[in-house]
């Protein structure tokens, strides 16, 4: 690496890598079989078993930056671990480092009250429950989160939560016990001070899951993405996070580290795809020679290596900037990686799928599923053009 990291970070990287090779990769077929053969919306036995092993080895809650509740790693030190976990769809949960729980735990660590941390953060840190983040709405362009129209209205000692949400990731899991809900609390205030976040228990009266949504045909069980109606849900005022009008502020604080995680996991998926592409080209023959001898495929391999390494370096640079100058000053780099990393990973995955032929678009490899997830990532946390707009504004500001 071009960036200095601690001995502890390097040791954790080696240990996570070893754990992945010993436990995660060999059990991926078991994980897929348990989802296919059992109740798709129940947690799989293999993941629960591996979670116990990872926690026993201290490979647990590694993501929390500069927090004694996690591994005490900075964003830059955690980034290579996120890349390793991105190589397998089951790995992030095994180490209790999966979205949206990671972002929700960071919200509670940074902004939650002592009572909120006791009730919700502790079981999340223990991996006993899961959570979801209820922001996106079908009726408005939610890429501009000031558009969010759901409401959080004070009523005595309670708040009334009302709104229609969708693409609520993780809501299909029966272990999901908490929604962090973004809604409008101060409609007459400045546009960036109109919203709040509030904690809504999954079992609160008025919470109705309308349906589970698919992503390019995948239902992503047992995690899933839900369309939910919150119909006049009453929650105590103590469930409000930080205060009325603070939702946009919390959302921005939540997104910085999360984008590092997403981008590095995408790079991990691309790295594994490149490995599979190389093995495929060496093992298969067509028209009298190995695929690895074909100029077009050699070009694809070279382009993939360059795509991955450029995206990784830019993401590590963003993490370094976050550590040294803070999330606000690093917002250009954070926006850049959110565009660059998923697009680079998709190019690599597309080449790997092409190299595998019909096998590549089937469920017999993880390539199609990884492509679907990362293609959706170009929309999650804001579409590409929103980030490009922010980058351009910040660049032009230098010359005004």
Question: How is the topology of this model organized?
Answer:
Elements (H helix, E strand, L loop, with lengths): L6 H31 L7 H12 L18 H11 L5 H4 L6 H11 L2 H12 L4 E5 L16 E5 L2 E12 L6 E9 L10 E7 L5 E7 L11 E12 L3 E2 L5 H37 L1 E2 L2 E2 L4 H31 L5 H26 L10 H11 L6 H14 L3
Helix pairs in contact: 1-2, 1-3, 3-7, 3-8, 5-6, 5-7, 7-8, 7-9, 7-10, 8-9, 9-10, 9-11
Brief synopsis:
The protein is of the alpha+beta class and 400 residues long. The chain has eleven helices and ten strands. It is 50% helix and 16% strand.
Structure description:
- By secondary structure, the chain is α+β, with helices and mostly antiparallel strands.
- The protein folds into three domains: 7-98, Butyryl-Coa Dehydrogenase, subunit A, domain 1 (Orthogonal Bundle), CATH 1.10.540; 130-241, Butyryl-CoA Dehydrogenase, subunit A, domain 2, CATH 2.40.110; 248-397, Butyryl-CoA Dehydrogenase, subunit A, domain 3 (Up-down Bundle), CATH 1.20.140.10.
- It is built from eleven helices and ten strands.
- A four-stranded mixed sheet has the order 1-4-5-8, with helices on one face. The chain has a four-stranded antiparallel sheet with strand order 2-3-7-6, with no helix packed on it.
């Amino acid at each position: 690496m071009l960036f200095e990291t601690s001995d502890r970070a390097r040791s954790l990287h080696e240990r996570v890598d070893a754990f992945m090779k010993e436990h995660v990769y060999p059990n991926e077929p078991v994980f897929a079989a348990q989802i296919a053969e059992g109740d798709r919306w129940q947690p799989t036995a293999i993941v629960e078993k591996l979670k116990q092993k990872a926690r026993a080895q201290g490979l647990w809650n590694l993501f929390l930056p500069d927090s004694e509740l996690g591994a005490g790693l900075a964003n830059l030190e955690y980034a290579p671990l996120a890349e390793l976990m991105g190589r397998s769809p089951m790995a992030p949960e095994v180490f209790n480092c999966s979205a949206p729980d990671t972002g929700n735990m960071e919200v509670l660590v940074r902004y939650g009250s002592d009572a909120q941390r006791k009730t919700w953060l502790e079981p999340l840190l223990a991996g006993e429950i899961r959570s979801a983040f209820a922001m996106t709405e079908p009726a408005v362009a939610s890429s501009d989160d000031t558009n969010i129209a759901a409401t959080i209205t004070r009523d005595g000692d309670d708040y009334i939560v009302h709104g229609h949400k969708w693409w609520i990731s993780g809501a299909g899991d029966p272990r999901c016990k908490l929604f962090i809900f973004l809604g409008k609390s101060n409609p007459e205030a400045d546009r960036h001070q109109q919203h709040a976040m509030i904690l809504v228990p999954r079992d609160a009266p008025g919470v109705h899951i309308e349906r589970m949504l698919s992503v390019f045909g995948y239902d992503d069980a047992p995690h899933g993405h839900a369309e939910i109606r919150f119909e006049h849900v009453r929650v105590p005022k103590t469930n409000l996070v930080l205060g009325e009008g603070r939702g946009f502020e919390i959302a921005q604080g939540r997104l910085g580290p999360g984008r590092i995680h997403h981008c590095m996991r995408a790079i991990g998926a691309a790295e594994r795809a490149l490995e599979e592409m190389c093995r495929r080209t060496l093992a298969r023959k067509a028209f009298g020679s190995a695929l690895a001898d074909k100029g077009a495929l050699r070009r694809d391999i070279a382009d993939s290596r360059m795509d991955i390494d450029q995206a990784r370096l830019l993401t590590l640079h963003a993490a370094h900037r976050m550590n040294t100058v803070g999330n606000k000053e690093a917002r250009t780099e954070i926006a850049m990686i959110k565009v660059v990393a998923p697009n680079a990973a998709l190019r690599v995955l597309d080449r790997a799928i092409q190299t595998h032929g019909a096998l590549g678009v089937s469920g017999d490899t993880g390539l199609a599923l990884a492509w679907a997830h990362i293609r959706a990532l170009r929309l999650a946390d804001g579409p590409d053009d929103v980030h490009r707009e922010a980058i351009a504004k910040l660049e032009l500001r230098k010359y005004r």
